[in-house]
UniProtKB/TrEMBL annotation:
Belongs to the DHNA family. GO terms for cellular component: cytoplasm. It comes from Piscibacillus halophilus. InterPro entries: Dihydroneopterin_aldolase, FolB_dom, GTP-CH-I_C/QueF. Residues 4-117 form the Dihydroneopterin aldolase/epimerase domain. Transmembrane segments: none annotated. This is 7,8-dihydroneopterin aldolase. It comes from the Bacteria.
Length: 123
């Protein structure tokens, strides 16, 4: 399957279990792999045959910078659902979210989740 990759997108959100996370917020990074047939776009050189990267970014931004969630698992799921709702050509998506410096005991660069969903998962 062909893929569009958008890497290390950065957003500021208020997701987490602890009150300080919901009050102060923090940075989140998101990577997505968008599985879509790009053959026609490659032949026609027409954006209508692909997916607009800027629109993809905006969909993800609305989720990450929107309503606070307790779990980044929920944020990832909302991103996947929103992308399928916005883009009919999208066949599957992998969403990876990193939360740098999570407020949990120990020393971490980040904590993260990665999910893979197919359009049929939402039918």
């Amino acid at each position: 399957m062909d893929k569009i990759l958008l890497n290390r997108m950065m957003f500021y959100g208020y997701h987490g279990l602890f009150p300080e996370e919901n009050k102060l917020g923090q940075r989140f990074t998101v990577d997505v792999e968008l599985m879509v047939d790009l053959r026609q776009a490659g032949q026609t050189d027409d954006m209508n045959d692909s997916m607009d990267y800027g629109q993809v970014y905006q969909v993800i931004q609305r989720v990450v910078e929107g309503e606070a969630k307790n779990l980044i698992e929920t944020v990832a799921e909302k991103i996947a659902q929103s992308l399928f709702n916005a883009f009919n050509k999208l066949e599957a998506v992998k969403v990876h979210i990193d939360k740098p410096g999570p407020p949990i005991p120990g020393y971490y660069e980040s904590a993260g989740v990665e999910i893979y969903r197919e359009r049929q998962d939402y039918v």
